[in-house]
Amino acid sequence: MFGQRTTSMWKFLPEYTTSNTNLRRVDISSEEDLQEGFARFQKDFDNALDICVPCAGINRHLPFLEFTYKDHQDLLSINVLGLYFTAQLAAKQMIANGTKHGSIVLVASMASHIAVRSQLCSAYCGTKGAVRSMCPAIAKELAEYVSQPHRFS
Q1: In sequence order, what DSSP letters do the residues of 117-137 get, joined into one string?
Q2: Could you give the CA distance from residue 71 to residue 120 in angstroms, rounded to a whole number?
Q3: Do residues 153 and 108 touch, judged by C-beta distance below 8 A?
């Protein structure tokens, strides 16, 4: 498990983990940090990876007319790029270790289908729509290597 807010994840760790589960703090908006996280994982688990569930997501809850370029870049760097490159590194690791039945589960959001009027999430909807849209293309490219990536919205 990778995440920026590991303190909130730690409370769930005993209930949902086994000796084959790992929790690390990784900034998925940082290419270097993400690569270092995967390198540590590869070392600790002898390069064995069967499933990856990139499900990062942040929102700023700001009205469309007040959203800044920086706010949107933050959402894109985590919700789209971080998820994309997490899936890419996982796929490369699965291919390298010969995993034929691995799974990559990309998590989008209902916000990729519908806007909720009471929520300020126009940029968030766009980032989760990107996740939803990239999944079939990734699945097509990886079909010869691993089980098809799946998407949950």
Answers
A1: TTS--HHHHHHHHHHHHHHHH
A2: 13
A3: yes
Strands 51-52 and 103-107: parallel
Which of 11-25, 67-81, 111-125 is least confident? Answer: 11-25
As beta bridge partners, residue 8 has none
Say which residue, 115 or 68, is predicted with more confidence.
Answer: 68
The Cα–Cα gap between 133 and 142 comes to: 15
* Of 22, 30, 32, 29, residue with least CA distance to 2: 22
What pTM was computed for the model?
A: 0.83
User: CB–CB of 47/96 below 8 Å?
Assistant: yes
Coil vs helix vs strand at 85:
helix
Average pLDDT over residues 122-135: 91
Residue 64 CB partners (closer than 8 Å, separation 6+): 120, 122, 123
Nearest to 26 by CA among 54, 65, 64: 54
Residue 119 vs residues 9, 55, 62, 110, 130: alpha-carbon distances, Å: 25, 20, 9, 12, 19
- With CA atoms as reference, report the closest residue to 103 among 36, 141, 26, 51: 51
